[in-house]
Specification:
Helix content is 35%, strand content 21%. The chain is α/β, with parallel strands linked by helices and 388 residues long. The strands form three sheets. The protein has a ten-stranded mixed sheet with strand order 6-7-5-4-8-2-9-14-3-15, sandwiched between helices. A three-stranded antiparallel sheet has the order 1-12-11, with helices on one face. Bound molecules: zinc ion (ZN).
């Protein structure tokens, strides 16, 4: 009996040690330094008095300054410039949630969507669980249409904070049914398994094939739900990337805004899986995910330059992984992860277009909400509904 107890004690100690050791291991990776040449993106200038009509908010989930720095080095070395690096205005945003210096995507996206701090896991509700209106809800009766894009399920925390009001981000079926009742007119991402498909098709053109993002039917539809995977989008050439979905969304939203003489549109597009690769402490995959995000930013910058009435804001909900960039060994850069969770490191807020000049200095993530509404003069817009 004594022997058995001793054996149990020894195995328990070994397991405890292994768990403890794993939590404290700092994963080191070597990433090749790239040799691409910078593609200079044309930048237009806008005078401070010009107001934008349209808003594009691009969120890199888990994308801190070092995710950007490593992606820059991996593309073309220390002197290379990504698209995000070429955005003219840059500020810092604090990301803490209502009662914790640690934020999750739900609380941080709620801060941007509604202007309030809430508890982690909560979506567009106060810490007391009362619903708070989101940007798409606030401007849908002021002549605006709204769209959402994500490489996660469209019911995942970040996109959900723009339309769902619920005390848990994990109730994805409930969140999906709230999307169908919301003023969001275009949703592109994953999450097929969470939807009541019959109900979804009553009000939406449902598309599940990336080729349908080009079709006539897509452009003619008054409301579109594009679900390209059961849950998060499995990355492959047969599935749309953030770039393709965001491009399709901008085409669709511009067309509808012009056809219906809307005041403008709001688009939120998330690079969701930069966070997932960072949780996995997988720098090589993170860089691949970031590339899609940066190509999306480059395309959106060209849209702003051509369109002149659109304000682009790029930010993150939080940093993930505590990524550190340490040293160079031959043609490799040594990086090390500090955690498998999120950190409280401030994130960048980048802005380009009319109204971009105010996005500088140290701000709070809730400020982004008010700065967006101020940019489009939301409080002065007359009530009007912009539908087909
Ligand atoms: Zn995360």
């Amino acid at each position: 009996m004594k022997k058995l107890l001793f054996l149990i004690f020894v195995s328990f100690s070994i397991i405890t040690y292994l768990i403890f050791f794993n939590q404290n291991s700092l994963k080191v990776e070597y990433i090749p330094i790239g040799n691409q040449k910078t593609k200079n993106i044309p930048i237009a200038s806008f005078d401070a008095a010009t107001k934008p009509k349209n808003i594009i908010l691009i969120i890199g989930d888990g994308t801190g300054f070092n995710q950007i720095t490593l992606s820059r080095i991996a593309a073309g070395g220390a002197d290379y410039r990504l698209a995000i690096d070429q955005i003219p205005f840059l500020g810092n945003s604090l990301t803490h949630s209502y009662d914790n210096i640690y934020t999750d995507s739900a609380a941080s996206a709620t801060a941007m969507a509604t202007g309030i701090k809430t508890k982690n896991k909560f979506l567009a509700v106060t810490p007391e669980k009362e619903a708070v209106p989101t940007i798409p809800e606030m401007i849908s009766n002021k002549g605006y249409i709204s769209g959402l894009v994500a490489t996660s399920s469209i019911t995942h925390a970040t996109p959900a904070a723009f339309y769902a009001h619920i005390d848990s981000r994990y109730k994805e079926k409930e969140i999906a049914s709230q999307l169908l009742e919301s003023p969001i007119q275009l949703s592109l991402g994953g999450g097929l398994e969470f939807f009541d498909i019959v109900k979804a098709q009553e009000s939406n053109l449902l598309i599940t094939d990336m080729n349908d993002l080009d079709g006539d039917e897509f452009l003619k539809a008054n409301q579109v739900l594009g679900l390209f995977d059961e849950d998060g989008i499995n990355r492959s050439s047969s599935k749309p990337a953030q770039l393709q979905m965001t491009k399709a969304a901008l085409n669709w939203l511009s067309l509808k805004t012009n056809l219906n003489s809307c005041n403008g549109f709001f688009l939120m597009s998330e690079g969701s899986q930069i966070d997932w690769a960072s949780h996995d402490n997988d720098a090589a995959t993170m860089v691949v995910e970031f590339k899609d995000f940066d190509q999306t930013i480059a395309m959106a910058m060209d849209f702003v330059t051509a369109n002149k009435e659109t304000l682009l804001i790029v930010t993150a909900d939080h940093e993930t992984g505590g990524l550190q960039i340490l040293s160079q060994k031959d043609d490799m850069v040594k990086v090390q992860w500090g955690t498998g969770s999120h950190t409280s490191i401030p994130v960048g807020v980048y802005a380009y277009g009319p109204g971009a000049h105010v996005f500088t200095g140290l701000i709070d993530n809730t400020d982004i909400h008010y700065m967006i509404l101020d940019a489009i003069n939301a409080s002065d817009l007359k009530p009007s509904v912009c539908t087909n």
